[in-house]
Amino acid sequence: MTFLQAVVDHYQKFLLPDMSHFLISAAHKSSGKTTISLGLCAAFRARGLLVQAFKKGPDYIDPLWLTQAAQRPCYNLDFYTMSSAEIRDSLVQYSQGADISIIEGNKGLYDGMDVEGSNSNAALARLLAVPVVLVLDTQGMTR
């Protein structure tokens, strides 16, 4: 192995992020996160992948839809009822056997109940070390 190949291999995880788990967020609420999440679950399932869905927060309606789309139970990841360790453990435990895990956020990327943003979608992505797919509602935007 050449020195260059060793460097590339070492930094590969930084160059191409692992997309087997990712979080879907948006700039603000009501931007289409659920629609995109459901569509991705269905599209990945149609390609023969086993999909595990998660929903941030205490929501109970969206997880019902995500369960249908993924054909596996959707689990909540909630900063208010779970510790950081429990959130991480839930992702690991319930993702076992899945080819891909989709975490649907709530509200906007940096929205949360505290001023520090410790319970935002961004905080969840940071905690779980997952990339973010940002959904943008471009209605009314111009060049």
Automatic annotation (TrEMBL):
Instruction: Give one GO term, molecular function aspect.
Output: cobyrinic acid a,c-diamide synthase activity
One Pfam family assigned to this protein is CbiA
Question: Which residues does the UniProt record annotate as the domain CobQ/CobB/MinD/ParA nucleotide binding?
Answer: 31-59
The record's PANTHER family line, in alphabetical order, gives: COBYRINATE A,C-DIAMIDE SYNTHASE
This protein is called Cobyrinic acid a,c-diamide synthase
Species source reads: Candidatus Thiomargarita nelsonii
